[in-house]
Amino acid sequence: MRCAAGAGLVLALAVPFAHAQTQVVHVLERGEFARSAAFSPLPDDAPWQPVSLPDNWYLSRPGDAQPGWYRLPFDLTPEQASAAGSLYLPRNSARRMLFFINGHRVGGNLGYGDPGARSWAPPLITNVPSLLLKPGRNVMQIRVVAVPDLRQGLTRVMLGQGTAGRALYERRYATQVTSFFMFSAAALLSGLLAAAFWIRERGDTTLLWFAVTAFAWAAAAFPWLHVVLTPPAFSQGPLAFAARFAYAAPMLVLCLRVAGKRWPIGEATLWTFTLAGLALAWFLSEDGQGEVITYWSETYLAALFVLLIVLIRSQQRQRRWAFWLLAASLVLAVLLNAHDLAWWMGWIDYESFQLAHFHIPLVLFAIGATIIDRHFQAVAAVERAKLELEGRVAEKAREIEANYARVQEAEHEKALARERQRIMADMHDGLGSSLVGLLGAVQSGRASLPEVERRLHDALQELRLAVDALEPIDGDLGVILGNVRHRMRTAIESSGVRFHWQVGELPQFSSLTPKAVLDIQRIVLEALTNSLHHARARDVTVGTQVNGSWLQIGVSDDGIGFDESSTTPGRGLESLRQRARRLGGTVEVRSSPGAGTSVTLRLPLEHP
Protein backbone atom coordinates (compact mmCIF):
# COMPACT_ATOMS: atom_id res chain seq x y z
CA MET A 1 0.00 0.00 0.00
CA ARG A 2 2.88 2.38 0.79
CA CYS A 3 4.50 1.63 -2.55
CA ALA A 4 1.19 2.20 -4.34
CA ALA A 5 0.68 5.50 -2.55
CA GLY A 6 4.20 6.62 -3.44
CA ALA A 7 3.73 5.64 -7.07
CA GLY A 8 0.43 7.52 -7.16
CA LEU A 9 2.08 10.64 -5.83
CA VAL A 10 4.85 10.43 -8.41
CA LEU A 11 2.31 9.98 -11.20
CA ALA A 12 0.22 12.85 -9.91
CA LEU A 13 3.25 15.13 -10.17
CA ALA A 14 4.61 13.69 -13.37
CA VAL A 15 1.43 13.70 -15.52
CA PRO A 16 0.91 17.51 -15.51
CA PHE A 17 4.60 17.98 -16.25
CA ALA A 18 4.47 15.49 -19.13
CA HIS A 19 1.32 17.13 -20.43
CA ALA A 20 3.02 20.51 -20.28
CA GLN A 21 6.02 19.16 -22.16
CA THR A 22 3.83 17.90 -24.99
CA GLN A 23 2.26 21.38 -25.31
CA VAL A 24 5.60 23.22 -25.61
CA VAL A 25 5.89 24.16 -29.28
CA HIS A 26 9.43 25.48 -29.41
CA VAL A 27 12.44 25.77 -27.10
CA LEU A 28 14.44 28.63 -28.59
CA GLU A 29 18.16 28.20 -27.88
CA ARG A 30 19.77 29.27 -31.17
CA GLY A 31 19.72 32.77 -32.56
CA GLU A 32 21.67 35.94 -33.19
CA PHE A 33 22.81 38.90 -31.05
CA ALA A 34 23.64 42.51 -31.84
CA ARG A 35 24.69 45.36 -29.58
CA SER A 36 22.37 48.32 -29.94
CA ALA A 37 20.63 50.89 -27.75
CA ALA A 38 17.68 51.16 -30.11
CA PHE A 39 14.19 50.71 -28.72
CA SER A 40 12.70 49.28 -31.92
CA PRO A 41 13.52 45.87 -33.45
CA LEU A 42 16.71 45.89 -35.55
CA PRO A 43 16.65 45.30 -39.31
CA ASP A 44 18.10 42.23 -41.00
CA ASP A 45 21.26 44.07 -41.99
CA ALA A 46 22.21 44.85 -38.38
CA PRO A 47 25.54 43.40 -37.14
CA TRP A 48 24.01 40.14 -35.97
CA GLN A 49 26.27 37.47 -34.53
CA PRO A 50 25.36 33.85 -33.77
CA VAL A 51 24.48 33.13 -30.12
CA SER A 52 23.42 30.13 -28.04
CA LEU A 53 21.00 30.31 -25.13
CA PRO A 54 21.21 30.51 -22.19
CA ASP A 55 23.58 33.48 -22.49
CA ASN A 56 25.35 34.53 -19.26
CA TRP A 57 26.78 37.98 -19.92
CA TYR A 58 29.30 37.57 -17.08
CA LEU A 59 31.00 34.94 -19.28
CA SER A 60 30.12 36.07 -22.79
CA ARG A 61 29.94 39.86 -22.54
CA PRO A 62 31.83 41.10 -19.42
CA GLY A 63 32.01 44.77 -18.68
CA ASP A 64 29.60 47.52 -17.81
CA ALA A 65 25.82 47.42 -18.08
CA GLN A 66 24.75 47.61 -21.74
CA PRO A 67 21.72 47.02 -23.98
CA GLY A 68 21.52 44.47 -26.76
CA TRP A 69 19.11 42.65 -29.07
CA TYR A 70 18.44 38.96 -29.59
CA ARG A 71 16.81 37.61 -32.78
CA LEU A 72 15.26 34.16 -32.47
CA PRO A 73 13.50 32.70 -35.56
CA PHE A 74 10.99 29.85 -35.28
CA ASP A 75 8.50 28.07 -37.58
CA LEU A 76 4.83 27.31 -36.90
CA THR A 77 2.27 25.12 -38.56
CA PRO A 78 -1.13 26.62 -39.39
CA GLU A 79 -2.66 24.86 -36.39
CA GLN A 80 0.05 26.18 -34.07
CA ALA A 81 -0.20 29.69 -35.45
CA SER A 82 -3.96 29.81 -34.93
CA ALA A 83 -3.72 29.00 -31.21
CA ALA A 84 -2.82 31.54 -28.57
CA GLY A 85 0.28 30.78 -26.56
CA SER A 86 2.82 32.20 -24.13
CA LEU A 87 6.50 32.98 -23.81
CA TYR A 88 8.09 31.35 -20.76
CA LEU A 89 11.59 32.09 -19.41
CA PRO A 90 12.93 30.04 -16.46
CA ARG A 91 14.60 33.16 -15.04
CA ASN A 92 13.82 36.84 -15.04
CA SER A 93 17.51 37.31 -15.66
CA ALA A 94 18.01 40.88 -16.88
CA ARG A 95 17.39 44.38 -15.65
CA ARG A 96 15.00 45.09 -18.53
CA MET A 97 13.56 42.87 -21.26
CA LEU A 98 11.14 43.74 -24.09
CA PHE A 99 9.61 41.04 -26.30
CA PHE A 100 8.67 41.59 -29.96
CA ILE A 101 7.12 39.00 -32.31
CA ASN A 102 7.08 39.79 -36.00
CA GLY A 103 7.74 43.45 -35.14
CA HIS A 104 4.94 43.77 -32.57
CA ARG A 105 5.61 44.21 -28.86
CA VAL A 106 4.04 41.52 -26.67
CA GLY A 107 5.35 42.36 -23.19
CA GLY A 108 8.39 42.58 -20.94
CA ASN A 109 9.64 42.14 -17.40
CA LEU A 110 8.85 45.60 -16.04
CA GLY A 111 6.10 44.27 -13.77
CA TYR A 112 8.38 41.67 -12.23
CA GLY A 113 10.62 44.13 -10.46
CA ASP A 114 14.37 44.41 -10.64
CA PRO A 115 15.96 40.92 -10.63
CA GLY A 116 19.43 42.16 -9.80
CA ALA A 117 18.89 41.99 -6.05
CA ARG A 118 18.17 38.27 -6.01
CA SER A 119 20.15 35.31 -7.19
CA TRP A 120 16.86 33.36 -6.99
CA ALA A 121 15.04 35.52 -9.57
CA PRO A 122 11.52 34.33 -10.37
CA PRO A 123 10.49 32.93 -13.74
CA LEU A 124 8.83 35.11 -16.34
CA ILE A 125 5.83 34.53 -18.61
CA THR A 126 4.17 36.68 -21.27
CA ASN A 127 1.00 35.91 -23.21
CA VAL A 128 1.24 35.81 -27.04
CA PRO A 129 -1.97 36.59 -28.98
CA SER A 130 -2.63 34.32 -31.95
CA LEU A 131 -3.11 37.38 -34.22
CA LEU A 132 0.63 38.10 -34.00
CA LEU A 133 1.60 34.60 -35.16
CA LYS A 134 1.60 33.32 -38.73
CA PRO A 135 2.16 29.98 -40.38
CA GLY A 136 5.72 29.39 -41.47
CA ARG A 137 8.63 31.54 -40.38
CA ASN A 138 8.24 33.90 -37.41
CA VAL A 139 10.86 36.10 -35.76
CA MET A 140 11.12 36.99 -32.06
CA GLN A 141 13.33 39.89 -31.05
CA ILE A 142 14.16 40.61 -27.41
CA ARG A 143 15.72 43.84 -26.20
CA VAL A 144 17.84 43.13 -23.11
CA VAL A 145 19.55 45.54 -20.70
CA ALA A 146 21.81 43.50 -18.41
CA VAL A 147 24.57 43.98 -15.83
CA PRO A 148 27.24 41.32 -16.45
CA ASP A 149 28.75 41.56 -12.95
CA LEU A 150 25.34 40.64 -11.52
CA ARG A 151 25.21 37.52 -13.72
CA GLN A 152 22.43 38.84 -15.90
CA GLY A 153 21.65 37.73 -19.42
CA LEU A 154 19.03 35.68 -21.23
CA THR A 155 17.83 32.13 -20.60
CA ARG A 156 16.27 29.76 -23.13
CA VAL A 157 12.90 30.99 -24.39
CA MET A 158 10.01 28.53 -24.49
CA LEU A 159 7.03 29.12 -26.77
CA GLY A 160 4.06 27.24 -25.32
CA GLN A 161 0.60 26.48 -26.63
CA GLY A 162 -2.47 26.89 -24.40
CA THR A 163 -1.67 26.58 -20.69
CA ALA A 164 1.65 24.78 -21.16
CA GLY A 165 3.77 27.83 -20.38
CA ARG A 166 1.61 28.74 -17.39
CA ALA A 167 2.03 25.23 -15.89
CA LEU A 168 5.80 25.42 -16.21
CA TYR A 169 5.77 28.93 -14.77
CA GLU A 170 3.64 27.97 -11.74
CA ARG A 171 5.80 24.96 -10.95
CA ARG A 172 9.02 26.92 -11.05
CA TYR A 173 7.50 29.88 -9.22
CA ALA A 174 6.27 27.63 -6.41
CA THR A 175 9.71 26.05 -6.05
CA GLN A 176 11.74 29.22 -6.40
CA VAL A 177 9.60 31.98 -4.87
CA THR A 178 6.57 30.66 -2.98
CA SER A 179 8.75 28.41 -0.84
CA PHE A 180 10.84 31.49 -0.09
CA PHE A 181 7.73 33.33 1.15
CA MET A 182 6.61 30.36 3.23
CA PHE A 183 10.00 29.93 4.86
CA SER A 184 10.17 33.65 5.58
CA ALA A 185 6.72 33.64 7.20
CA ALA A 186 7.69 30.62 9.31
CA ALA A 187 10.93 32.38 10.26
CA LEU A 188 8.98 35.48 11.32
CA LEU A 189 6.66 33.40 13.52
CA SER A 190 9.52 31.44 15.07
CA GLY A 191 11.42 34.69 15.62
CA LEU A 192 8.45 36.18 17.49
CA LEU A 193 8.20 33.07 19.67
CA ALA A 194 11.95 33.08 20.38
CA ALA A 195 11.85 36.79 21.23
CA ALA A 196 8.93 36.23 23.60
CA PHE A 197 10.77 33.39 25.35
CA TRP A 198 13.97 35.47 25.51
CA ILE A 199 12.11 38.40 27.11
CA ARG A 200 10.97 35.99 29.80
CA GLU A 201 14.36 34.25 30.16
CA ARG A 202 16.96 36.95 29.57
CA GLY A 203 19.83 34.70 30.58
CA ASP A 204 19.68 32.54 27.42
CA THR A 205 21.31 34.56 24.59
CA THR A 206 20.75 31.67 22.18
CA LEU A 207 17.07 32.62 22.00
CA LEU A 208 18.02 36.24 21.29
CA TRP A 209 20.29 35.33 18.39
CA PHE A 210 17.69 32.90 17.09
CA ALA A 211 15.13 35.73 17.02
CA VAL A 212 17.60 38.13 15.32
CA THR A 213 18.45 35.56 12.65
CA ALA A 214 14.80 34.72 12.01
CA PHE A 215 13.84 38.41 11.76
CA ALA A 216 16.74 39.13 9.39
CA TRP A 217 15.69 36.28 7.13
CA ALA A 218 12.02 37.33 7.21
CA ALA A 219 13.01 40.92 6.38
CA ALA A 220 14.94 39.67 3.34
CA ALA A 221 11.62 38.54 1.80
CA PHE A 222 9.87 41.84 2.40
CA PRO A 223 10.55 43.49 -1.01
CA TRP A 224 8.99 40.47 -2.70
CA LEU A 225 5.65 40.84 -0.93
CA HIS A 226 4.35 43.13 -3.63
CA VAL A 227 5.81 44.65 -6.75
CA VAL A 228 4.72 48.12 -5.62
CA LEU A 229 6.94 47.82 -2.52
CA THR A 230 10.04 46.97 -4.56
CA PRO A 231 12.32 50.03 -4.91
CA PRO A 232 13.02 51.01 -8.54
CA ALA A 233 16.77 50.46 -8.14
CA PHE A 234 16.72 47.73 -5.57
CA SER A 235 19.78 46.06 -7.04
CA GLN A 236 21.93 49.02 -6.10
CA GLY A 237 23.31 50.14 -2.75
CA PRO A 238 23.47 48.53 0.70
CA LEU A 239 19.79 47.54 0.62
CA ALA A 240 20.47 44.79 -1.91
CA PHE A 241 23.53 43.62 0.01
CA ALA A 242 21.58 43.53 3.28
CA ALA A 243 18.74 41.60 1.65
CA ARG A 244 21.20 39.02 0.39
CA PHE A 245 23.51 38.66 3.41
CA ALA A 246 21.94 40.36 6.46
CA TYR A 247 21.03 37.03 8.04
CA ALA A 248 24.51 35.51 7.58
CA ALA A 249 26.31 37.15 10.51
CA PRO A 250 23.62 36.54 13.17
CA MET A 251 23.14 32.97 11.93
CA LEU A 252 26.85 32.20 12.29
CA VAL A 253 26.86 33.74 15.78
CA LEU A 254 23.75 31.70 16.62
CA CYS A 255 25.44 28.46 15.53
CA LEU A 256 28.48 29.33 17.64
CA ARG A 257 26.24 29.88 20.66
CA VAL A 258 24.57 26.53 20.07
CA ALA A 259 28.00 24.91 19.87
CA GLY A 260 28.85 26.53 23.20
CA LYS A 261 31.53 28.81 21.71
CA ARG A 262 32.16 32.49 22.21
CA TRP A 263 34.81 34.01 19.96
CA PRO A 264 34.78 37.77 20.52
CA ILE A 265 37.55 38.38 17.97
CA GLY A 266 35.99 36.13 15.35
CA GLU A 267 32.54 37.63 15.86
CA ALA A 268 33.92 41.16 15.71
CA THR A 269 35.72 40.27 12.45
CA LEU A 270 32.50 38.84 11.06
CA TRP A 271 30.49 41.98 11.85
CA THR A 272 33.29 44.21 10.54
CA PHE A 273 33.33 42.27 7.28
CA THR A 274 29.57 42.65 6.99
CA LEU A 275 29.73 46.41 7.57
CA ALA A 276 32.55 46.68 5.06
CA GLY A 277 30.36 44.92 2.49
CA LEU A 278 27.54 47.37 3.22
CA ALA A 279 29.93 50.30 2.81
CA LEU A 280 31.30 48.98 -0.49
CA ALA A 281 27.80 48.35 -1.78
CA TRP A 282 27.00 51.96 -0.91
CA PHE A 283 29.99 53.52 -2.66
CA LEU A 284 30.47 51.16 -5.60
CA SER A 285 28.42 51.41 -8.74
CA GLU A 286 26.13 48.64 -9.87
CA ASP A 287 28.83 47.29 -12.17
CA GLY A 288 31.24 46.85 -9.26
CA GLN A 289 28.89 45.07 -6.85
CA GLY A 290 29.51 41.68 -8.38
CA GLU A 291 32.95 41.39 -6.83
CA VAL A 292 31.54 42.27 -3.38
CA ILE A 293 28.91 39.55 -3.73
CA THR A 294 31.53 37.07 -4.91
CA TYR A 295 33.94 37.68 -2.05
CA TRP A 296 31.19 37.64 0.57
CA SER A 297 29.65 34.45 -0.85
CA GLU A 298 33.02 32.71 -0.75
CA THR A 299 33.68 33.94 2.79
CA TYR A 300 30.23 32.88 3.97
CA LEU A 301 30.70 29.43 2.45
CA ALA A 302 34.10 29.10 4.14
CA ALA A 303 32.61 30.26 7.46
CA LEU A 304 29.87 27.64 7.18
CA PHE A 305 32.47 24.94 6.55
CA VAL A 306 34.58 26.07 9.53
CA LEU A 307 31.45 26.22 11.67
CA LEU A 308 30.61 22.63 10.73
CA ILE A 309 34.06 21.50 11.84
CA VAL A 310 33.78 23.45 15.10
CA LEU A 311 30.38 21.90 15.81
CA ILE A 312 31.63 18.37 15.19
CA ARG A 313 34.71 18.85 17.36
CA SER A 314 32.88 20.62 20.19
CA GLN A 315 30.14 18.00 20.55
CA GLN A 316 32.25 14.85 20.65
CA ARG A 317 30.77 13.66 23.93
CA GLN A 318 27.21 14.90 23.53
CA ARG A 319 26.13 13.67 20.11
CA ARG A 320 22.42 13.34 20.60
CA TRP A 321 19.82 13.31 17.84
CA ALA A 322 19.68 17.12 17.84
CA PHE A 323 23.43 17.27 17.14
CA TRP A 324 23.10 15.05 14.10
CA LEU A 325 20.16 17.10 12.86
CA LEU A 326 22.14 20.34 13.20
CA ALA A 327 25.23 18.78 11.61
CA ALA A 328 23.12 17.53 8.68
CA SER A 329 21.57 20.98 8.21
CA LEU A 330 25.00 22.60 8.15
CA VAL A 331 26.24 20.03 5.63
CA LEU A 332 23.24 20.84 3.44
CA ALA A 333 23.89 24.56 3.96
CA VAL A 334 27.46 24.10 2.72
CA LEU A 335 26.27 22.09 -0.31
CA LEU A 336 23.45 24.48 -1.22
CA ASN A 337 25.66 27.55 -0.93
CA ALA A 338 28.39 25.79 -2.90
CA HIS A 339 25.80 25.08 -5.61
CA ASP A 340 24.78 28.74 -5.80
CA LEU A 341 28.40 29.89 -5.74
CA ALA A 342 29.09 27.55 -8.63
CA TRP A 343 26.15 29.10 -10.49
CA TRP A 344 27.41 32.59 -9.67
CA MET A 345 30.83 31.74 -11.03
CA GLY A 346 29.28 30.26 -14.20
CA TRP A 347 30.38 26.68 -13.54
CA ILE A 348 26.91 25.11 -13.85
CA ASP A 349 23.86 25.66 -16.04
CA TYR A 350 22.65 29.25 -16.10
CA GLU A 351 19.02 28.17 -15.68
CA SER A 352 19.65 26.12 -12.54
CA PHE A 353 17.44 26.61 -9.52
CA GLN A 354 18.91 28.84 -6.83
CA LEU A 355 19.02 26.77 -3.64
CA ALA A 356 20.84 28.88 -1.04
CA HIS A 357 17.65 30.16 0.55
CA PHE A 358 16.63 26.61 1.45
CA HIS A 359 19.41 26.26 4.03
CA ILE A 360 18.10 28.98 6.37
CA PRO A 361 14.86 27.20 7.37
CA LEU A 362 16.80 23.94 7.68
CA VAL A 363 19.36 25.49 10.01
CA LEU A 364 16.71 27.36 12.03
CA PHE A 365 14.66 24.17 12.35
CA ALA A 366 17.72 22.21 13.50
CA ILE A 367 18.70 24.91 16.00
CA GLY A 368 15.12 25.11 17.23
CA ALA A 369 15.16 21.34 17.71
CA THR A 370 18.47 21.69 19.59
CA ILE A 371 16.98 24.36 21.87
CA ILE A 372 13.92 22.20 22.52
CA ASP A 373 16.14 19.18 23.19
CA ARG A 374 18.17 21.21 25.66
CA HIS A 375 14.96 22.33 27.30
CA PHE A 376 13.84 18.74 27.66
CA GLN A 377 17.28 17.82 29.01
CA ALA A 378 17.03 20.68 31.50
CA VAL A 379 13.54 19.53 32.54
CA ALA A 380 14.82 15.97 32.94
CA ALA A 381 17.80 17.25 34.92
CA VAL A 382 15.45 19.24 37.15
CA GLU A 383 13.32 16.14 37.67
CA ARG A 384 16.40 14.10 38.53
CA ALA A 385 17.62 16.84 40.85
CA LYS A 386 14.15 16.99 42.39
CA LEU A 387 14.13 13.25 43.04
CA GLU A 388 17.66 13.41 44.40
CA LEU A 389 16.76 16.39 46.56
CA GLU A 390 13.66 14.62 47.83
CA GLY A 391 15.83 11.62 48.73
CA ARG A 392 18.31 13.84 50.51
CA VAL A 393 15.53 15.72 52.28
CA ALA A 394 13.99 12.42 53.40
CA GLU A 395 17.37 11.24 54.59
CA LYS A 396 17.98 14.51 56.44
CA ALA A 397 14.47 14.32 57.87
CA ARG A 398 15.23 10.87 59.22
CA GLU A 399 18.51 12.16 60.65
CA ILE A 400 16.72 15.15 62.20
CA GLU A 401 14.05 12.90 63.65
CA ALA A 402 16.72 10.62 65.10
CA ASN A 403 18.61 13.62 66.48
CA TYR A 404 15.37 15.04 67.82
CA ALA A 405 14.59 11.75 69.52
CA ARG A 406 18.06 11.73 71.06
CA VAL A 407 17.66 15.35 72.15
CA GLN A 408 14.23 14.59 73.59
CA GLU A 409 15.66 11.62 75.43
CA ALA A 410 18.51 13.76 76.70
CA GLU A 411 16.10 16.51 77.75
CA HIS A 412 13.95 13.90 79.47
CA GLU A 413 16.99 12.61 81.30
CA LYS A 414 17.94 16.15 82.28
CA ALA A 415 14.39 16.84 83.45
CA LEU A 416 14.41 13.66 85.54
CA ALA A 417 17.77 14.64 86.97
CA ARG A 418 16.51 18.13 87.79
CA GLU A 419 13.36 16.68 89.32
CA ARG A 420 15.37 14.25 91.41
CA GLN A 421 17.57 17.10 92.58
CA ARG A 422 14.50 19.19 93.38
CA ILE A 423 12.85 16.37 95.31
CA MET A 424 16.09 15.73 97.15
CA ALA A 425 16.42 19.42 97.95
CA ASP A 426 12.78 19.65 99.07
CA MET A 427 13.10 16.54 101.18
CA HIS A 428 16.36 17.81 102.62
CA ASP A 429 15.13 21.34 103.32
CA GLY A 430 11.61 20.42 104.36
CA LEU A 431 11.19 16.91 105.69
CA GLY A 432 14.87 16.39 106.39
CA SER A 433 15.27 19.56 108.44
CA SER A 434 12.07 18.80 110.39
CA LEU A 435 13.22 15.28 111.22
CA VAL A 436 16.72 16.48 112.15
CA GLY A 437 15.23 19.12 114.45
CA LEU A 438 12.85 16.59 115.98
CA LEU A 439 15.68 14.10 116.47
CA GLY A 440 17.73 16.73 118.25
CA ALA A 441 14.84 17.65 120.52
CA VAL A 442 14.17 14.01 121.40
CA GLN A 443 17.84 13.32 122.08
CA SER A 444 18.09 16.35 124.34
CA GLY A 445 15.02 15.29 126.32
CA ARG A 446 13.46 18.74 126.03
CA ALA A 447 10.62 17.75 123.68
CA SER A 448 7.36 16.73 125.25
CA LEU A 449 5.18 14.05 123.78
CA PRO A 450 2.64 16.53 122.38
CA GLU A 451 5.50 18.50 120.84
CA VAL A 452 6.96 15.37 119.25
CA GLU A 453 3.53 14.42 117.95
CA ARG A 454 3.02 17.87 116.43
CA ARG A 455 6.38 17.95 114.78
CA LEU A 456 5.93 14.44 113.40
CA HIS A 457 2.58 15.53 112.05
CA ASP A 458 4.24 18.53 110.31
CA ALA A 459 6.90 16.26 108.81
CA LEU A 460 4.25 13.86 107.59
CA GLN A 461 2.32 16.78 106.13
CA GLU A 462 5.45 17.93 104.27
CA LEU A 463 5.97 14.45 102.89
CA ARG A 464 2.37 14.27 101.71
CA LEU A 465 2.65 17.61 99.97
CA ALA A 466 5.77 16.47 98.13
CA VAL A 467 3.98 13.29 97.04
CA ASP A 468 0.90 15.26 95.92
CA ALA A 469 3.09 17.56 93.84
CA LEU A 470 4.38 14.57 91.88
CA GLU A 471 0.93 13.36 90.85
CA PRO A 472 -0.16 14.22 87.27
CA ILE A 473 -2.86 16.88 87.33
CA ASP A 474 -2.85 18.06 83.65
CA GLY A 475 -2.95 21.74 84.61
CA ASP A 476 -6.06 21.41 86.79
CA LEU A 477 -5.62 23.90 89.64
CA GLY A 478 -8.80 22.63 91.30
CA VAL A 479 -7.08 19.30 91.99
CA ILE A 480 -4.23 21.12 93.74
CA LEU A 481 -6.58 23.06 95.99
CA GLY A 482 -8.64 19.91 96.59
CA ASN A 483 -5.51 18.07 97.74
CA VAL A 484 -4.75 20.88 100.20
CA ARG A 485 -8.30 20.71 101.59
CA HIS A 486 -8.02 16.95 101.91
CA ARG A 487 -4.72 17.17 103.78
CA MET A 488 -6.13 19.84 106.15
CA ARG A 489 -9.43 18.08 106.76
CA THR A 490 -8.50 16.75 110.20
CA ALA A 491 -7.04 20.07 111.29
CA ILE A 492 -10.13 21.95 110.09
CA GLU A 493 -12.53 19.63 111.88
CA SER A 494 -10.55 19.64 115.14
CA SER A 495 -10.24 23.44 115.16
CA GLY A 496 -13.99 23.96 115.51
CA VAL A 497 -14.15 26.76 112.89
CA ARG A 498 -16.79 27.06 110.25
CA PHE A 499 -14.99 26.31 106.97
CA HIS A 500 -16.28 27.83 103.70
CA TRP A 501 -15.07 26.40 100.37
CA GLN A 502 -15.83 28.87 97.57
CA VAL A 503 -13.72 27.41 94.75
CA GLY A 504 -15.51 27.51 91.40
CA GLU A 505 -14.54 26.21 87.94
CA LEU A 506 -10.97 27.21 87.20
CA PRO A 507 -9.15 27.62 83.86
CA GLN A 508 -6.47 25.18 82.81
CA PHE A 509 -2.84 25.97 83.52
CA SER A 510 -0.73 24.39 80.77
CA SER A 511 2.63 24.68 82.56
CA LEU A 512 2.16 23.50 86.14
CA THR A 513 5.39 21.74 87.06
CA PRO A 514 5.75 19.72 90.27
CA LYS A 515 7.79 22.60 91.67
CA ALA A 516 5.01 25.10 90.90
CA VAL A 517 2.37 22.76 92.35
CA LEU A 518 4.37 22.42 95.54
CA ASP A 519 4.78 26.21 95.80
CA ILE A 520 1.04 26.79 95.38
CA GLN A 521 0.23 24.12 97.94
CA ARG A 522 2.65 25.57 100.48
CA ILE A 523 1.32 29.12 100.06
CA VAL A 524 -2.30 28.04 100.52
CA LEU A 525 -1.37 25.62 103.31
CA GLU A 526 0.67 28.26 105.16
CA ALA A 527 -2.19 30.78 104.98
CA LEU A 528 -4.75 28.17 106.04
CA THR A 529 -2.59 26.91 108.92
CA ASN A 530 -2.15 30.42 110.28
CA SER A 531 -5.93 31.01 110.21
CA LEU A 532 -6.64 27.72 111.98
CA HIS A 533 -3.91 27.76 114.62
CA HIS A 534 -3.16 31.43 115.39
CA ALA A 535 -6.03 33.66 114.35
CA ARG A 536 -8.63 32.33 116.85
CA ALA A 537 -11.14 32.65 114.03
CA ARG A 538 -14.69 31.38 113.93
CA ASP A 539 -15.00 31.41 110.12
CA VAL A 540 -12.34 30.55 107.53
CA THR A 541 -12.98 30.94 103.82
CA VAL A 542 -11.01 29.64 100.83
CA GLY A 543 -12.18 31.18 97.51
CA THR A 544 -11.05 31.77 93.91
CA GLN A 545 -11.83 34.52 91.39
CA VAL A 546 -10.75 35.20 87.79
CA ASN A 547 -9.96 38.88 87.26
CA GLY A 548 -8.96 39.62 83.66
CA SER A 549 -5.76 37.76 82.93
CA TRP A 550 -5.17 36.91 86.61
CA LEU A 551 -6.44 34.22 88.95
CA GLN A 552 -6.88 35.10 92.63
CA ILE A 553 -6.76 32.43 95.38
CA GLY A 554 -7.76 33.87 98.72
CA VAL A 555 -7.67 32.54 102.32
CA SER A 556 -9.50 34.82 104.78
CA ASP A 557 -10.66 34.58 108.42
CA ASP A 558 -12.49 36.70 111.03
CA GLY A 559 -9.83 36.22 113.69
CA ILE A 560 -7.97 38.66 115.87
CA GLY A 561 -5.80 40.01 113.08
CA PHE A 562 -2.73 42.15 113.60
CA ASP A 563 -1.43 45.62 112.94
CA GLU A 564 0.58 45.56 109.71
CA SER A 565 2.33 48.87 110.44
CA SER A 566 3.66 47.79 113.80
CA THR A 567 4.49 44.21 112.94
CA THR A 568 7.90 43.32 111.61
CA PRO A 569 7.55 41.09 108.52
CA GLY A 570 8.44 37.58 109.46
CA ARG A 571 10.31 34.88 107.68
CA GLY A 572 7.10 33.09 106.78
CA LEU A 573 5.60 36.04 104.89
CA GLU A 574 8.84 36.57 102.97
CA SER A 575 8.86 32.88 102.10
CA LEU A 576 5.34 33.20 100.69
CA ARG A 577 6.36 36.15 98.52
CA GLN A 578 9.42 34.34 97.19
CA ARG A 579 7.31 31.37 96.20
CA ALA A 580 4.79 33.69 94.52
CA ARG A 581 7.56 35.40 92.52
CA ARG A 582 8.78 32.02 91.28
CA LEU A 583 5.25 31.44 90.02
CA GLY A 584 5.19 34.81 88.27
CA GLY A 585 2.58 36.14 90.69
CA THR A 586 2.24 38.08 93.92
CA VAL A 587 1.01 37.55 97.49
CA GLU A 588 -0.98 40.27 99.20
CA VAL A 589 -1.64 40.14 102.99
CA ARG A 590 -4.24 42.43 104.56
CA SER A 591 -5.01 42.52 108.29
CA SER A 592 -6.02 44.82 111.11
CA PRO A 593 -6.62 44.18 114.84
CA GLY A 594 -10.01 42.63 115.43
CA ALA A 595 -10.92 42.58 111.69
CA GLY A 596 -9.33 39.31 110.63
CA THR A 597 -6.71 38.53 108.00
CA SER A 598 -6.82 37.81 104.27
CA VAL A 599 -4.01 36.32 102.15
CA THR A 600 -4.49 36.64 98.37
CA LEU A 601 -2.29 34.80 95.83
CA ARG A 602 -2.48 36.33 92.32
CA LEU A 603 -1.34 34.08 89.47
CA PRO A 604 -1.16 34.99 85.73
CA LEU A 605 -3.34 32.85 83.52
CA GLU A 606 -0.54 32.74 80.91
CA HIS A 607 2.72 31.37 82.20
CA PRO A 608 5.40 34.10 82.04
Description:
The protein has 608 residues and is α+β, with helices and mostly antiparallel strands. Helices cover 55% and strands 17% of the residues. Strand 14 and strand 15 form a beta hairpin. Helix 4 (164-200) runs antiparallel to helix 5 (205-220), helix 12 (449-470) packs antiparallel against helix 13 and helix 13 (477-487) crosses helix 15. The longest helix has 86 residues, at 359-444. It is rod-shaped, with a radius of gyration of 55 Å.
In short:
This protein has 608 residues and is an alpha+beta fold. The chain has helices spanning 2-23, 57-60, 78-82, 164-200, 205-220, 237-245, 248-258, 264-283, 289-314, 321-344, 359-444, 449-470, 477-487, 489-495, 514-533, 571-582; strands at residues 24-28, 30-34, 49-52, 55-56, 66-76, 85-89, 96-101, 104-108, 124-128, 136-146, 153-154, 157-161, 498-502, 539-547, 550-557, 586-591, 597-604.
Radius of gyration: 55 Å
Strand adjacency order, main sheet:
3-2-5-10-7-8
Whole-Å distance between the termini?
89 Å
Structural class: alpha+beta
User: What is the overall shape?
Assistant: rod-shaped
Mean pLDDT: 79
Low-confidence stretches: 1-22
How many individual β-strands?
A: 17
**Beta fraction:** 15-25%
The biggest sheet amounts to: 6 strands, antiparallel
Task: Count up the helices.
Answer: 16
Q: Helix fraction?
A: 40-55%
